Amino acid sequence: MLSVSQLNQYYGSSHTLRGVSMTVEKGECLALLGRNGVGKTTLLKCLMGVLPAAAGQMHFEGRDITRLKPHQRAALGIAYVPQGREIFARLTVEENLLMGMARLPGRRAASIKSEVYELFPVLKDMLGRRGGDLSGGQQQQLAIARALLAEPKMIILDEPTEGIQPSIIKDIERVIRLLRQRGDMAILLCEQYFDFAHALADKFVVLSRGEVVATGLQAQMNTEDVKRHLAV
Description:
32% of the residues lie in helices and 26% in strands.
């Protein structure tokens, strides 16, 4: 579904991504792993078009998206839940959810699908509350729900467990597992919490200093070589 070939990016004179290549297939969860500052978020922003690629190519369902803008990638079916959630703090929960449906045609965007409340029951009781009044965990659930309402073919999640209480981490894990089992969506999960990623991933990619230093299947994640690149 998504293929990345020899992607390079710079921050000033710093070479932040160095020839990154990877693929994400429909129905699978790919875990993107690595310490802080190795280029994970930079890579995700390039995939979404928030940052331009200095060199390399990105294809989505066979189409070259390397120069497309973020809204054009969203229209193709790529959803992005950024680190820090970035919900609209002054809008209500309901208004935030409706914003997620902006890319859909009129009738499909007229009402919020009940499925989102099945995945995140807490949101149904908070529709009138402002997004900024929610806890960090509730905001993360809202951000993921908003992305899912765009009916994506692929969802990119940037550290969804960061700063979240354990009970809500379990809820988020349950939702990602359900999406993976459904089989109609590709999931790119960027995560530092190894156990969370290991429980959900089909494959993994490890970054270090902007380079891919390890790849493999989920069964190969729990090795000393992989953990060496994640240890602080």
